[in-house]
Amino acid sequence: MNRARLALGAFLAFMLIAPLVLPAFHVTLLNYIGLYSIVALGLVLLTGVGGLTSFGQAAFVGVGAYTTAYLSTAYGVSPWLTLLLGLALTFVLSLFLGFISLRLSGHYLPLGTIAWGISLYYLFGNMEFLGGHNGLSSIPAISLFGLALDSARKFDYLIWTLASLALLSMHNLLDSRSGRAIRALKGGGLMAESFGVDTARMKIIIFVHAALLASLSGWLYAHLLRFVNPTPFSINAGIEYLFMAVVGGAASVWGAVVGAGILTVLKQWLQDLLPRLLGQSGNFEMIVFGVLLVILLQRAREGIMPLIVNRFPAPRRPLPATTQVLPKRARPAAGEAMLEIRNVRKVFGGLVAVNELSFAMNSGEILGLIGPNGAGKSTVFNLVTGVLPGTGGEVYFRGERIDTLSARDIVPRGMARTFQQVHLLPTMSVLENVAIGAHLRGSKGVISAALRLEREEEAMLLAEAARQLERVGLGGHVQEQAGSLALGQQRILEIARALCADPVLLLLDEPAAGLRYQEKRALAELLRKLRSEGMSILLVEHDMDFVMKLVDRLVVMDFGEKLAEGLPQEIQTNPAVLEAYLGGVK
């Protein structure tokens, strides 16, 4: 049994025994830690993993708390029904706020969350039927199988059962196809879109998910205290929740519990200690929190939990066993029209990056696109793959016009690419990075992932990623972090990721950059093998020796225009190419 299972077993045993043996005050602290952990867990998903900072989660806690408080006291509705109604209201509200807020970027997003967080706080305090600033009291206790949970000791079990289920479902979600897509949002959005991930939809999903967890915590809070008023749902509380996620480890599921535990206990201790030291009462603990957060960010930017994990690394997990394989796309007939670019033009302000460019390639061909730095080659890749919209002209893929489609709509048609600047998720494993390429070859969503109902599909996706890594010679690096690989290996990893999408046309942007001589030879052999299997390859590369020995034809660009097109031997002797690119005529 590994350390992780031992630690989990010890945690569960403690949670079973603690309410029976601890003093009432400590049981109350445990209850609050559980409530805060649920909210912080949502922020781990939203902020730590997804990269979307929110200061307004306390408002969603208030939505859950006030929904059950009002309906159960005014109309006698069962608390279990008010839970569903509160989650439904939170779903609608968070969906609306998500569509508004997530259009913002940079520092405007957290400012937006502060704005609606403050608005909801004042709304709670100014609505008479919610009791105004005096709040609502006499909230009924929750009954479970005829047992009234009318004490902190009894309620502790409900809080930590729901908190444990939330932790488990979050762990399941992040360890899945959808989880990889979510983790790609932070620093890998362009790459994820290029492999079919709907990043806008994923942002909405995690925003709503975090809000629903906060609402669940609010429902528990209301029935634990049997009283609610607006104070616990202010922007200050929202900041504290974010503190908990950051301190515990913003990208760690268990960091939510660690952060909630540290700040809850520390806050209680400081509230007792500081007034004695300073001789007066006040929210001095917030000052201490601020100082501690600055120190933490200097010493351990990833939070407390990653420090623990790094000190006690978990053993490598074996790949899930499966005998099934993902279905493969039918390969086009030899000589079939693959890609046609007609008079494509791209203008950035006053700069013409690509000007009236036209060329075509057929199935089973390796076509090289070469030219000096700044000639517009990578821009052409971005136009073909839908990363950039064209200013003019048309692009056809297998006879279908695609220049009006987005990147994620082009991928399922059989096109995949690598990037000039490596686009990887450095803290994810090599295997998971490659598996992102197969995103559209799976279909299970976030609910199936959270309930762990997609294990068969996940095993097939990971098995496919492992096969492609073996294919490109990186089979021995499956479990390593992608960021630990050398630059040349990272470029080969990108090729494996593109192959995972099962393309018929592969676009490679400087794949040999950073490779040693033997690695270049191995890459050339791989590309020739792919061509023999029916793969078409469009290649941008600066290594002329590598290109001339590999490609079937070449297109030469200069200042965004086509300078020449032909066989490698013809290009090598073309005076215009020699003058513009190869150093001039001798």
Question: What can you tell me about this protein's structure?
Answer:
Helices cover 54% and strands 12% of the residues. The chain is of the alpha/beta class. The chain folds into 2 domains: 3-311, ABC transporter involved in vitamin B12 uptake, BtuC (Orthogonal Bundle), CATH 1.10.3470; 337-580, Rossmann fold (3-Layer(aba) Sandwich), CATH 3.40.50.300. The model has no long low-confidence stretch (mean pLDDT 91).
Task: Describe the secondary-structure layout.
Elements: H1 3-21, H2 24-49, H3 57-74, H4 79-101, H5 108-126, E1 136-137, E2 142-144, E3 147-149, H6 152-174, H7 177-183, H8 189-194, H9 199-225, E4 227-228, H10 235-249, H11 255-278, H12 284-299, H13 304-311, E5 337-348, E6 351-362, E7 366-370, H14 377-384, E8 392-397, E9 400-401, H15 407-410, E10 415-417, H16 430-435, H17 446-450, H18 455-472, H19 487-500, E11 505-509, H20 517-532, E12 536-540, H21 544-548, E13 553-558, E14 561-566, H22 568-572, H23 575-580
Parallel strand pairs: 7-12, 7-13, 10-11, 11-12
Antiparallel strand pairs: 1-4, 2-3, 5-6, 5-8, 8-9, 13-14
Helix pairs in contact: 1-6, 2-6, 2-9, 2-10, 2-11, 3-4, 3-5, 3-9, 4-9, 6-9, 10-11, 11-12, 18-19
